Amino acid sequence: MIQLNIRDTKQLKPVTDVLKENQWLNKQKKIENHNGVFVIYTNLKSLPPILSQYDFSQYDNEPRAKISLRYCIETYYKQHGLNKLDFEIPKKWSIYPPMVLFNANTDKKYLPKALCQELLKHQVKIFGRCGITHLAINKPIIESDVMRRPFNIVPLYGDFGPELAMDHWPTEADFTNAFWCHVVQNGIYQTWAPKYTMFSRGNIKEKKRILDCYKNLDGSIVVDFYCGIGYFALSYLKNGAKVLCWEINPWSIEGFKRALQHAGYKYKIYQQDESFQIDELKNVDACLFLESNEKLLERFEHVKEKKLNIKHINLGLLPSSRPSWKTAHQLVTNKSCCETIVHLHENVHTNYIDTLKNEIEARFQESRVLYVERVKTFAPDIWHIVYDVEIK
């Protein structure tokens, strides 16, 4: 289509009058001022004699398709003669640089390499950012797996790391060769290897609650029975606490370690056969125990009664933290010199939330439930609940 380039402002009205009179004016586009040159867009394919004295040029008036995930996938299949999509187009995704993780609304486990490359080519328009190198589909973890490993993550594009046997204990070389992604939530950096350990996106609400509600923890101790990659422990650290953390997945401990390094915290990792003295906490911010929390009370046997300023204990295991209730109660009553808040995480039906609250107060002597936090829903009427239990 033709655009007229008018340099004399006195000619603007006469030209536009002619265009309007003959219905040649493109009313969808406004007159533009380009450094003193006024551009008038027409719907003419050739210039009529009445306008021949004016400078003109061509412009593209074809509507441009909006680049989107759906557009790219549908265009690819159309170009390759496929009548039916072999991949259900995700409606949602999460970005964990440098990875895009699609929601699990497809049973397919494959996307053509060329299609993935096309998506990454347009990543700024599709995903709103650059630097993406990996694509994957997220599927729920198996609740019975106590190590919380992402068995069902489906890599679509990019090298996610070597195939390792499920009983393989990772080496430093394995950590180096793995693919790592990260996220920053509430100003806190967290990282993990998605092929070997999970990330729980929905915990962000509870992390923020910790940051907002439990400030000024300098001089206090927080014990995390199921620390993972540092989901909640990093929030307590940011508020000034020292943390003692237990985790059985070495990949999670490695992710936690990297987050601590990124934030500049001092830490020490204890293997199951390494000795521990509570005085060692004076020289570090975090002690990470790569072992079952069934050994937790043994780690405190050398500590005199009522000597530790344990302000918080976090029991962040779902679907239920019940296996650790007794241990947490013993730790508080035997070793804590102050009132301690135990955060019990449970998946609870809405009809049972108050009933469980009463049960908790009956199970924990000299306790009261200070607050009940509904974090998120897992299924109809099933909530991730955190009970804040104060034990005197």
TrEMBL record:
Catalytic activity: 4-demethylwyosine(37) in tRNA(Phe) + S-adenosyl-L-methionine = 4-demethyl-7-[(3S)-3-amino-3-carboxypropyl]wyosine(37) in tRNA(Phe) + S-methyl-5'-thioadenosine + H(+)
Record lineage: Eukaryota, Fungi, Dikarya, Ascomycota, Saccharomycotina
UniProt similarity note: Belongs to the class I-like SAM-binding methyltransferase superfamily. TRM5/TYW2 family.
Name by which UniProt lists this protein: tRNA wybutosine-synthesizing protein 2
Described function: S-adenosyl-L-methionine-dependent transferase that acts as a component of the wybutosine biosynthesis pathway. Wybutosine is a hyper modified guanosine with a tricyclic base found at the 3'-position adjacent to the anticodon of eukaryotic phenylalanine tRNA.
GO MF entries: S-adenosylmethionine-dependent methyltransferase activity; tRNA 4-demethylwyosine alpha-amino-alpha-carboxypropyltransferase activity; tRNA methyltransferase activity
Natural source organism: Candida oxycetoniae
Localisation: Cytoplasm
Chief localization: cytoplasm
Keywords from the UniProt entry: Cytoplasm, S-adenosyl-L-methionine, Transferase, tRNA processing
